[in-house]
UniProtKB/TrEMBL annotation:
PROSITE patterns: ABC_TM1. This is Amino acid ABC transporter permease. PANTHER family: AMINO-ACID ABC TRANSPORTER PERMEASE PROTEIN YHDX-RELATED, MEMBRANE COMPONENT OF AMINO ACID ABC TRANSPORTER. It comes from Streptomyces bugieae. CDD domains: TM_PBP2. Keywords: Amino-acid transport, Cell membrane, Membrane, Transmembrane, Transmembrane helix, Transport.
Amino acid sequence: MNVLLDHLPAFRDGFLGTLAITAASAVIALVLGVLIAGFRVSPIPPLRAFGTAWVTLLRNTPLTLLFLIAMFVVPQVLFKGLSPFVLAMLALGFYTSSFVCEAVRSGINTVPLGQAEAARSLGMTFSQTLRLIVLPQATRTVLPPLSSIFIALTKNSAIAGAFSVTELFGFAKLLSDQGYAIAWIFLWVALAYLVITFAISGAFRLLERRMGVAR
C-alpha cells in the first residue's frame, strides 16, 4: 500500500492518462470503423476497394510498428509539432478502427436483404438506407464484439507509455526504474486496468439489456 500512497499523484496522472487515450482512441475508432464499414458494403467499387485495403493493411500491421511510424515518420513527413499523446491516439484509433469495421460489417450482414431492398423501393439513397434502416438494426448484433474490441484497446494503450505518453504503464516504468518491487507496482496497475475494463464491460452489458429484444 505504501508504494501506491507514496506515489498517488503519479498513479492518478497515469490512470487519467489511460482513460483519456482510451476514450479518445475509441471515438476515432468508432467513427472511422463505421465509415469504413459503409465503404466495404458500398455499391461503388473504388470505395469497396479502399475499405478492403484499409482493413487488410491495419489489421495485419503490428501495433508497435504503427506507433513507430506515428511517432517518428508522421511528424517528419506530414504534421510537425503534434504531441506524443495525439500521435499515440491516432495510432491506436486507426488500428482499432479496422477491427470495429469488421464487427460493424458483420452486423450489417445480419440484417435481412429485404430491408435494404424495401428502402430502395421507397427512393432512399444508399447512405440513407445504411444510416436509417440497416445500422440501427445491426447495432444489437455489433455490441458484444465492440465490447471486446474496446477492452483490447484499453490494454493496447499500454504501448503508448513507451513513447513518452503519461499512462499507467509509464507509471509502472517510473517506479521500476526507481528500484521499487515490480510485483507490487504491477499489482496496482493491473487493478487499475481491471477497473477500466470492468466499467467498459458493464456499460456494454447495460446497452445490450436496453436494446435487447424479448424472445
